[in-house]
Amino acid sequence: MITSILRAPSLNRAFISPVGRNALRSLHSSTPYVPGGPVYRGSVNDPTTFPPPSRTHGSYHWAFERLLAASLVPMTAAAFVTSGSSYPVLDGLLGISLVMHSHIGFDSMLVDYLHPRKFPFLGPLMTWTLRTATLGVLVGIYQFNTNDIGLTELIAKVWHA
């Protein structure tokens, strides 16, 4: 890219001063190409540290998310068809799957928008808030399925209301 700027027509050179052109030439000739760019240390430009490679956070993690999202469709359809609380396994699977799907979605949002490097206090706080809320919802779903009508019966009542 630097070479193409230096060899470009005079229209492009008009925007680069002679000092800038010399700096580009020296930068191009003295700095070898490093995949991912140069590494700066000891300033605000420190690169983001990458987590160690893990198979569970790679393609298996992505495949699990898609499988979970796709499995919610037949489970919800089965909840409509059965429409009774005589299927506690379906209630449990549907409850856990809905909560896991929501947790993964909110966690992805937090990772994207409230990164701990940019928000050193708010990022981890919101992550732990999400984990606490997920645990609370799981306890509530368990209580609702065991001591009340259950999710499949709730879906049937809401559908016919």
From TrEMBL:
Subcellular location(s) per record: Mitochondrion inner membrane
Membrane topology qualifier: Multi-pass membrane protein
Binding site for a ubiquinone: 113
Annotated residues for binding of heme b: 101
Keywords: Iron, Membrane, Metal-binding, Mitochondrion, Mitochondrion inner membrane, Transit peptide, Transmembrane, Transmembrane helix, Transport
Cellular component aspect of the GO annotation: membrane protein complex; mitochondrial inner membrane
Main location: mitochondrion
Molecular function per GO: heme binding; metal ion binding; ubiquinone binding
Biological process terms in GO annotation: mitochondrial electron transport, succinate to ubiquinone; tricarboxylic acid cycle
Origin: domain of life: Eukaryota
InterPro entries: CybS, SQR/QFR_C/D
Keyword Transcription: no
Entry annotated with the keyword GTP-binding: no
Family assignment from sequence similarity: Belongs to the CybS family.
Stored PANTHER family: SUCCINATE DEHYDROGENASE, SUCCINATE DEHYDROGENASE [UBIQUINONE] CYTOCHROME B SMALL SUBUNIT, MITOCHONDRIAL
Protein name as it appears in the record: Succinate dehydrogenase [ubiquinone] cytochrome b small subunit
Annotated organism of origin: Scleroderma citrinum Foug A
